[in-house]
Amino acid sequence: MMLWNTIDIADHQRAFLYVRDRFEGVLTPGRHRVSRLQGKVRVETFDITEGRFNHSKARFLLAQYAETLAPHLDKFELQDTEVGLLYRDGHLVDVLAPGSFLAAWKGTEAVNVVAVNIDTEFEIDPSVLALVGRGVKIGQSREVVKAVAYTEVPDEHVGLLQVNGKLEKTLAPGSYGFWKYNRSVVVKLLDLRLQAMEVGGQEILTKDRVSLRINLTGSYRVVDAEITALKLNDFAGFIYRELQLQLREAVGTQTLDALLADKDSLNVVIADGIRGKLSQYGIEMISVGVKDIILPGDMKVILNQVVEAQKEAEANLIKRREETQAMRSLHNTAKMMDNNPTLLRLKELEALERVTGRIDKISVYGGLEGVLNDLVKLRTS
After folding, report:
1. 195-295 CATH fold
2. What is the pLDDT of residues 268-322, one digit of tens each?
3. What is the pTM of this model?
4. Which of 76, 119, 155, 307 is the right S-S partner for 113, CB 3.0 to 4.6 Å?
5. In the chain, domain spans
6. Pairwise CA distance, residues 371 & 381, whole Å
7. CA–CA separation, 130 and 113 (whole Å)
């Protein structure tokens, strides 16, 4: 009957020795002999190259046998308001949640935990953010994903930092990280560039009760992101509805003829009405313009008839004016010829010239005198 247990421990191992289920000590690399006469012997073997001491009773063992385990293990314990940055040989490898407990083996690599107080200051230092941000191995850790709210604010944008539902501050373009432990962190981005808004297919009645379909366009930009975020949940929807209301109000106070005669006045009325309203919410309305005024089919026919009648009346008026002018000129010519026989004779010859220019052949009797004296005669009363 063997009275000894022989236990071999490799260089990368450590072992806990239990006799009658009581902790007796740590076995270092080498061969160990334990007497069986003491009672039941049990050994727990650990690979110290893993770094962490993962044991279900680690906290108890380190508290109960602190002097025995101190040469072999380091322990790190975080407060509820602290986050731990876990370094191995100077390299950041993971993040520890508040209240975490970590035990690490000595003798393989330098393990260190840097505690960061997040009770009041929860923004991540830029030097640490470069390691826990996206694209870095540590940034892909599951614990880091849960711990860090990472965001990038592009140029011509502003970030609105909300903590536990309260707006804390605005963020300029750049990259930011915040610890999410013990709080809710949300960063909302607002675009400060010029934005376009289309309001299409609005069926509106004019003052003279003509139904029109109008398409409107506008451009705006956010000038005070903090006021906009605090006062408006959906500022784009708010602008759309305000443009609708201003358009209906402006069209409903004008007749169809007035709208068709001066569309620019409609733009001015809408712009003046909406600028004052939006300025209260940190938004600047740059321009407003009516793109299309679409008439119903029967109204198009009526308007075409009206335009046709107007043009026909204008043509008749011009024709009558020209006839009157021609008659007046003819009357003046007749008066001049009545008092001047020579002028009358020249007019007769001019008429003769026009007549002869339109015929191929003319028979003349009486010679040139007959042509001059007998071909054209004026009856005197």
Report:
1. Tetrahydropterin Synthase; Chain A (3.30.479)
2. 888 888 998 999 999 999 999 888 887 765 655 656 666 666 767 777 788 788 8
3. 0.65
4. 76
5. 195-295, 299-331, 340-381
6. 23
7. 18
